[in-house]
Amino acid sequence: MKLEAEFNRIEGVAAAFNTHYEIFKYMKGLTQDLGMNAFLIMTLPTVDIVEIGATKIITNWPAEMVEYYDTHNLLIDSPVIRRMLSSTSPFNYDVEAINADRGQGKKSTVIELFNRYGMGKGAYFPVHDAAGGRGAMSISGPRNFSMIEMAKLLFIATLIYDRLSQLTLKERQRPIEFTHSELDCLRLTAGGKKGNEIAKLLDLSEHAVNNHISSVIKKLGCTSRTQAVVSALRLNIIRA
Fold first, then answer.
1. Which of the four pLDDT bands, split at 50, 70 and 90, describes residue 171?
2. What pLDDT digit, counting tens, does each position of 199-223 carry?
3. Which residues are in the HTH luxR-type domain (predicted)?
């Protein structure tokens, strides 16, 4: 998968995606072919959102990285988010340079975290959907992109985000049927319970709990428990 080829075919490719998981696989392949390590497609947070876990739509960021990021409140006063909320221009980033003005505690924490996972450089591409909702795509790894690469990736990001928005809208309009057990497991997962804890509370085997949660993930077109919880909250399937 080469960038030039993807740029030339992305309109047809994006239109053919039918699930979030198909887009996840595409983005994972594109990221790898670019010699990068991670991608994130997110909605830009409002003032009451303080966790990256609540903004991401799809990502291959390591789960432990997202948890650490949120535990240390690194979304608050993020210079990356601040820049995207004030401008629609794509930009390369270097984790050390862009966090230069953060308080020393958070500065060193962010730099160490992103370098630990090979995400010290990369780029962000602000995008929006037909309803005016704002989001962004990022690709992170060991390098920055050229101006030509940035232009092509911005076009790809725009079409990918638009298709994701269409799929999300279809999910909201199409009722998804869940069993009582699936909803119970989903609610308890949203409440922070682990599989073995849910099993004890519902008097089920841990294997049965995992099957129920896997079914929920598949029905929602997600790739992880965290994404399923975020999607279910966004679609009002469960409430916080």
1. low
2. 999 999 999 999 999 999 888 877 7
3. 171-236
Distance from C-alpha of 79 to C-alpha of 64, rounded to nearest angstrom:
22
- Rounded-to-integer distance, Cα 121 and Cα 117, Å: 11
Query: Which three-class secondary structure state does DSSP give residue 145?
Result: coil
**Phi and psi, residue 157, nearest 5°:** -60, -40
Residue pair 157/127 in contact by the 8 Å Cβ criterion: yes
pLDDT digits (tens, 9 = 90+) for 54-92: 566 788 998 888 888 888 888 888 899 889 888 899 999
Sheet of strand 56-59, all strands in order from the earlier edge strand to the far edge: 56-59, 38-43, 134-141, 121-128, 91-94
The structural architecture, per CATH, of the domain 176-234 is: Orthogonal Bundle (1.10)
Q: What mean pLDDT is predicted for residues 129-145?
A: 91
Which one-letter amino acid corresponds to residue 1? M
Task: Return the residue matching tokens 């232009």.
Answer: 151
> Do you know the residue count of the chain?
240
The Cα–Cα gap between 237 and 196 comes to 23
Q: Which residue, among 62, 24, 25, 56, has the nearest Cα to 43 in the 3D structure?
A: 56
Q: Rounded distance, CA 193 to CA 17, Å?
A: 33
**Residue ranges of domains in the chain:** 3-172, 176-234
Residues 6+ apart with CB under 8 A from 170: none
136 close to 84: Cβ distance less than 8 angstroms: yes
Instruction: Write the CA distances from 84 to 13, 17, 80, 136, 141, integer angstroms.
Output: 27, 27, 6, 8, 19
CATH T-level topology, domain 3-172: Beta-Lactamase (3.30.450)
